[in-house]
Predict the 3D structure of the following.
Amino acid sequence: MDEIDIAAAMALLEGRRPRAVLIAGPTASGKSALALALAERLGGTIVNADSMQIYRDLKVLSARPGAAEEGRAPHRLYGVAGIDDDWSVGRWQAAVAPVLADIAAQGQVAIVVGGTGLYFRALTEGLVEVPAIPHEIRARVRAINDPAELLARLAILDPAMAGMLSPSDSARLARALEVVEATGRSLADWQRDEAAPPLVSPAEAVRLVIAPDRATLHARIGRRLEAMVEAGAVEEVRALLDMGLTPPARGPARGILKAIGIRPFAVYLAGMLGLAEAIEQAKAETRQYAKRQETWFRNQMADWHRIW
């Protein structure tokens, strides 16, 4: 992280000691480095808001902070999930609430950092509490890997919601289907209900989005993917496969298998792709993901401070 970035962030904090500093940004943009620098300067605790860094067995591909970083500042909600866990936004919100309360009780600043936009929305805007989905319904719906089948079923039970979602977005189609099956009520109706109050209000936080230019970000993505391979990314994927996890040949994955790089490296390990090709595919996937993140942050976090 360049010193100018830290200076820009510190300038926004001048004369203030907020309850939280929220740092969002696309993958490989330098969020973790900035969070660590601010935590050291403020005496803060870093809190994970990245849906992949919660996984215990995904240290390399998720770019989770290592022992050296964790030795410089306290880190919370990193590596807390098992391979079979599929954390929802609501589950993360429920987990982060006591963490934030504990940090505040110690008189520290929470440095919340990550690339999962929905986590930040839940944190700052609250979240409508949909009743818990029975395990048998969730398991049955989540076993459907074909988005066309999910859409067809949803169109029968909840045509309004089916018309609002992308036909290829399996995750949101499955969520809408399981909600209407479990509650008899459209997810759209639940979302119109009054949300629970936010855990962190804008008035008590400094909200930052790391916004590098596209060329800089792509260069960082390329360098980081190569460093991940050197650090054991392929071996990490091999270990996941040995645990019985199998990424889908096509279409969206769920849970830990959503991590970028798992699919191309799994194909490489199956002998169907060269390592150089797998690395290039992983880089391309990462660039596409970063573009989606940038679009989200630009549209959904327009009033956050942009720094680089």
Notes: The radius of gyration is 20 Å. Strands lie at 20-24, 45-48, 75-76, 110-114, 205-210, 305-307. The chain has a mean pLDDT of 92. The longest helix spans residues 275-300.
